[in-house]
Q: What sequence folds into this?
């Protein structure tokens, strides 16, 4: 009984002197430490990566424009959420890059696929934010009245060539940004998104909207598919990269040729 009594007393003394305070304060410390680590991660991302700083500046300017143009609360929240989605995707992409470097698996197929998916997430979030911004500022802000007060036409009419040039510029800007952020490929070769596929399907989408002819549409899509096939067979891009580029071209074409009066 003395042995049992001794065993039962010693743990109690240990808990009273050292372990009990740690267990009481542990949950609070864990929460504070988690918040501290999270804040340090955000600060590091902004301090070490200029793309994150550029995104923050863009968010700030867009928010100022939305406030100045009297965007209603719900559209404003939709716009802000879309922009925050881009920032979150960029933070996750940066974290994945560090993990790949830490494990030394940058050149492994699995690590490469993970980085491609992360780059694709940034691209999808960026395109979504871009489309959301167009819809909000065109339909839920005072931007049309600003044009009216400036004695500019309420509906801006742009020719087909101007729209096509604008689309090519937007595609090049998005593809170049993604490749620069991912540090893979050049503007005309390689990378997580196929610029050739994006341009091919942008032009195909433009032909479909401009002509409205089924035969012309089939021919345009066939030519775009030939571009995709050539990039795939030569090994310049994977199927995922070509699909991302094709989707980008179609989306930009729909936004421009489907919403801007001609």
A:
């Amino acid at each position: 009984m003395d042995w049992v009594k001794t065993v039962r007393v010693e743990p109690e003394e240990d808990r009273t002197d050292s372990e009990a305070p740690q267990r009481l304060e542990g949950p609070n410390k864990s929460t504070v430490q988690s918040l501290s680590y999270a804040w340090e991660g955000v600060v590091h991302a902004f301090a070490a990566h200029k793309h994150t700083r550029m995104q923050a500046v863009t968010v700030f300017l867009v928010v100022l424009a939305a406030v100045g143009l009297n965007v209603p609360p719900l559209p404003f929240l939709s716009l802000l959420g879309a922009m925050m989605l881009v920032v979150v995707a960029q933070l996750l992409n940066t974290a994945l890059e560090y993990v790949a470097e830490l494990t030394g698996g940058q050149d492994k197929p699995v690590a490469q696929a993970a980085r491609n998916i992360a780059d694709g997430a940034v691209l999808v979030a960026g395109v979504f934010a871009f489309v959301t911004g167009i819809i909000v500022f065109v339909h839920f802000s005072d931007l049309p009245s600003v044009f009216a007060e400036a004695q500019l036409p309420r509906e801006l009419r742009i020719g087909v060539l101007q729209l096509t040039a604008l689309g090519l510029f937007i595609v090049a800007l998005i593809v170049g940004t993604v490749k620069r952020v991912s540090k893979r490929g050049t503007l005309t070769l390689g990378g997580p998104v196929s610029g050739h596929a994006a341009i091919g399907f942008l032009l195909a989408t433009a032909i479909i909207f401009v002509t409205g002819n089924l035969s012309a549409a089939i021919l345009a899509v066939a030519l775009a598919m030939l571009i995709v096939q050539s990039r795939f067979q030569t090994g310049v891009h994977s199927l995922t990269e070509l699909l991302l580029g094709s989707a980008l071209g179609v989306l930009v074409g729909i936004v421009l040729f489907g919403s801007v009066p001609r």
Q: What stands out?
A: Residues 1-48 form one domain. The CA atoms of residues 158 and 262 lie 5 Å apart.
